[in-house]
């Protein structure tokens, strides 16, 4: 059963691009495409609770622009410093289409007392301030 993690529980349409030169490139559907699947969405907080996950050592997020939403859905894990290392990216083109501002993830993490370091123009690393 396909499942995704995001900012809230629900369902989303996911576009499965079928292009030989684009392995792993898919994303939330913003229009009517012929290659769509509907997936259940849960928060990382809910997924961790349902699967008895009390600590995450490394969280790598690569959701083609929706990384901020994954972090929003992990608010309790983050508030309780249950995630040690977070790697995420800003896919600016997709973020614009999803109405996510460039600094939303960084600002969110910093408010929860995480240190955020920019590794490259689009790649970030965060860890709890101790």
UniProtKB/TrEMBL annotation:
Residue span, Methyltransferase FkbM domain: 11-115
Family annotation (InterPro entries): FkbM_mtfrase (IPR006342), SAM-dependent_MTase (IPR052514), SAM-dependent_MTases_sf (IPR029063)
Which PANTHER family would you find in this protein's record? METHYLTRANSFERASE, FKBM FAMILY PROTEIN (PTHR34203), SLL1173 PROTEIN (PTHR34203:SF15)
Q: What is the protein name for this chain?
A: Methyltransferase FkbM domain-containing protein
Organism the protein comes from: termite gut metagenome
Lineage of source species: unclassified sequences, metagenomes, organismal metagenomes
């Amino acid at each position: 059963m396909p499942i995704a993690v995001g900012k809230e529980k629900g369902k989303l349409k996911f576009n499965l691009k079928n292009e030989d030169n684009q392995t792993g490139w898919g994303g939330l559907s913003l229009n009517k495409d012929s290659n769509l699947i509907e997936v259940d969405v849960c928060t990382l907080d809910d997924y961790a609770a349902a699967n008895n996950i009390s600590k995450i050592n490394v969280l790598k997020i690569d959701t083609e622009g929706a990384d901020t939403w994954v972090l929003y859905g992990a608010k309790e894990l983050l508030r309780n410093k249950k995630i040690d290392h977070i790697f995420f990216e800003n896919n600016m083109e997709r973020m614009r289409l999803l109405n996510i501002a460039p600094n939303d993830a960084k600002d969110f993490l910093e408010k929860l007392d995480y240190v955020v370091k920019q590794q490259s123009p689009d790649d970030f690393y965060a860890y709890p301030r101790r």
